[in-house]
Specification:
Number of strands: 0
Strand content: under 5%
Helix content: over 70%
Largest sheet: none
Structural class: mainly alpha
Oligomer: single chain
Radius of gyration: 28 Å
Length: 96
């Protein structure tokens, strides 16, 4: 997801009144420290959280795909190797 999508999602959450209360509390404390508004700090915190979640979801999807692919590939590869050795064995017997 692009950065703009995360920011838009947070703006919609704020407009609808759906906010993480603990994160909002942290944003208010940060506002006193850094001089930015609580909404700006909240947006930064929430976007960082959304990005982190997106990365985790993407990594999980890649891992799941990789495992599925390996589960499909290994039996086929083993069959190929067995067939190769069987053919080599048959050819070795015939030429001896």
């Amino acid at each position: 997801m692009a950065d703009q999508d995360f920011y838009l999602q947070v703006e919609k959450e704020i407009a609808s009144g759906i906010q993480d209360e603990a994160m909002l509390s942290k944003a208010k404390i940060m506002a006193e420290e850094n001089g930015l508004s609580a909404n700006v700090n909240y947006t930064k915190l929430r976007v960082a959280e959304l990005k982190s979640n997106d990365i985790k979801e993407t990594a999980a999807a890649v891992a799941t795909f990789s495992i599925k692919t390996l589960k499909e590939f290994i039996p086929k590869a083993l069959l190929f190797v067995l067939l190769f050795f069987l053919i080599a064995f048959i050819l070795a017997i015939q030429f001896n």
